[in-house]
From TrEMBL:
Any GO CC annotation of this UniProt entry: chloroplast
Protein family per UniProt: Belongs to the LDH/MDH superfamily. MDH type 1 family.
Coiled-coil segments on the chain, per record: none
Oligomeric and partner information: Homodimer.
Species this protein is from: Populus tomentosa (Chinese white poplar)
Keywords linked to the UniProt accession: Glyoxylate bypass, NAD, Oxidoreductase, Peroxisome, Tricarboxylic acid cycle
Designated name of the protein: Malate dehydrogenase
Length: 377
């Protein structure tokens, strides 16, 4: 391939990354090796739902991750605009955009890690399970394409209800005969991030030094913080335990409802006000996006470091598990070159946590079954 042609393709790709494939075809080129100069070899990561509230900041943060060499941004709307914007960041990962179902397979071919924040978010008054009817089909379709294009990729599922969408993904892979329970992970990192923050707040600690295991699932009572196992070791009053458990379990709702408070206030005050900014930023609806993007990147980075071969990468995630009698459960897992290498037992629980575990399992069982039945029907 002529050096000048490669340069032309690279320049065109940088001006308008979605045009890369077209330019390559026009020039009769083989696929351009599109690693930016100075970039180390890295991982190929796709974000499905990249133009959304989570997808955009997630894409930005992944573009900043030095472990990523190629970043594919897929959505059914606005994928090219987001790609053009993010591609101007002077970091080494090369970004390409993919728009609509007909480009889904191109977005997925050869990926090492696929992150899925595609789907609708909650509005005030809704539960995560209320999203099932729309998001179940979206996750199923995306996983069917992963089966075809990158069945060995690590898959991080963010789309709610996670308690059901992970079993849906697993069933799709099982149906195709390619299910590897080590590679399908529901992202519950936001629960841990919140728990670390709220514990640090009341104990006067630096949140970066706090580690709260949060097990179970990702909705209401299925979110079970193990406050007896917090590191550094903390002693809480019963009032503090009640407050923290409730706040961690309802952190998502706190954000969802916050938007509606902002809307009410906005209707009676001027747009320039601080509340006007909230309305403009969030459009009056939706759920956590920025903290979720932060949590998703923290988790994705852990997966990539583990793929690279780093030792002792341990985080909570919702995975196929034998830790309880349920087929899926969130607990601490050790990540490695193949995804989940080890699932840790829950450790000693106090009476309060044992009661919480029973409630969590009851609700989780129904959500798991609902996901499994959706694919089997
Ligand atoms: N696991 C967790 O801790 C959290 C999960 N979530 C969930 O993440 C999901 C996304 O939330 P937001 O980004 O706020 O929503 P959003 O509506 O802002 O963005 C979703 C994006 O998905 C895209 N999309 C819809 N159908 C698609 C398809 N078939 N293929 C590809 N993309 C598609 C939309 O075009 C949109 O750009 C929701 O289900 C939400 O409940 C949100 C926060 C935390
Ligand atoms: O609450 C929601 O709908 C979004 C979510 O999962 C969270 O913020 O934890």
């Amino acid at each position: 391939m002529q050096q000048s042609n490669i340069r032309i393709a690279r320049i065109a790709a940088h001006i308008n990354p979605p045009n890369l494939q077209m330019v390559e075809e026009d020039l009769g080129l083989e696929r351009v090796n599109c690693r930016a100069k100075g970039a180390s070899s890295g991982f190929k990561v796709a974000i499905l739902g990249a133009a959304g509230g989570i997808g955009q900041p997630l894409a930005m943060l992944m573009k900043m991750n030095p472990l990523v060499s190629l970043l594919h941004l897929y959505d059914v709307v606005n994928a090219h605009g987001v790609t053009a914007d993010i591609s101007h960041m002077d970091t080494s990962a090369v970004v390409r955009g993919f728009l609509g179902q007909q480009q889904l397979e191109d977005a997925l071919i050869g990926m090492d890690l696929v992150i899925i924040p595609a789907g609708v978010p909650r509005k005030p008054g809704m539960t995560r399970d209320d999203l099932f009817n729309i998001n179940a089909g979206i996750v199923k379709t995306l996983c069917e394409a992963i089966v075809k294009c990158c069945p060995k990729a690590i898959v991080n599922i963010i789309s709610n209800p996670v308690n059901s969408t992970v079993p849906i993904a697993a069933e799709v892979f099982k149906k195709a005969g390619v299910f590897d329970p080590k590679r399908v992970l529901g992202v519950t990192m936001l629960d841990v991030v919140r728990a670390n923050t709220f514990v640090a707040e009341i104990m006067g600690l630096d949140p970066r030094e706090v580690d709260v295991p949060v097990v179970g699932g990702h909705a209401g009572v299925t979110i079970l913080p193990l406050l007896s196992q917090v590191k550094p070791s903390c002693s809480f009053t019963q009032k503090e335990i009640d407050y923290l458990t409730d706040r961690i379990q309802n952190g998502g709702t706190e954000v969802v409802e916050c938007h509606s408070i902002a809307m009410v206030l906005c209707s009676s005050i001027m747009f320039e006000s601080a509340f006007g900014c909230i309305l403009q930023a969030k459009a009056g609806a939706g759920s956590a996006t920025l903290s979720m993007a932060y949590a998703a990147v923290k988790f994705a980075d852990a997966c990539l470091r583990a793929l690279r071969g780093d030792a002792a990468v341990v985080h909570c995630a919702y995975v196929a598990s034998e830790v309880t009698e349920l087929p899926f459960f969130a607990s601490k897992v050790r990540l490695g070159r193949n995804g989940v290498e080890e699932i840790y037992p829950l450790g000693p629980l106090n009476e309060y946590e044992r009661a919480g575990l029973e409630k969590a399992k009851k609700e989780l069982a129904g959500s798991i079954q609902k996901g499994v039945s959706f694919v089997k029907k």
